[in-house]
Please model this.
Amino acid sequence: MIYRAAIFDLDGVIADTARLHLIAWQQLAEGLNLPWTADTEERLKGLERMASLEVILGEKSSNYTEEAKIALAARKNSRYQELIRSLSPADLLPGAGELLAWLNSQHIPVGLASASKNAPAVLEALGISRCFSVIADPEKSAPKPAPDIFLAAAKGLGIDPEFCIAFEDAPAGVSAIKSADGMTAVGIGNPDSLKDADYMLDSLEQFVPNDFFLSVLAESGMRQNKDLAVNE
Model:
């Protein structure tokens, strides 16, 4: 299969902004005297903000009104936004900057499918905003594992899902990709929790783009050659 577009999750794939989310969520949990375990961290992966809050609140969720929950989520996000300001291109995970640069050099469309409402600010801090043609809006998509945000990214790029390859580090994200009308999933990280992915990598550093993509320039050249052959 030759793919025509790449779609990325953000946290844990392009940069370790997941740690900033975890710091902000842990500080919120501690402020509310709620338990925080390694299992809590794993369960938060790939979830949008309000779903993450439900994980944090756990059995105490019914003690809070919807208004109170919205206020708690806003408090966490305010802290996260403070932490974002500490990011720089040095925080890109191994292989991320190089892969994005290669895709751009080959004029291959690139989209972002992140549950984070702060994704534009994160990309700006990392210095890679210009690498993305489309940033799918999480507020207009059902949360992962629903495929909506990946389908929205593919639609924004103008590429059929079956010709898109997507990168994820969370089980919910991989499930979303696998439900996205034939899209291919590349899991980044723990192979035990991402066993449903079509391909597994420790990091983007291991991904060999030449094995998966045909550049727009090369494709255009092939079409021209084919037209010439027909005319001859």
User: Anything to note?
Assistant: The longest helix spans residues 66-84. DSSP finds nine helices and six strands in the chain. The two ends are 29 Å apart (CA to CA).
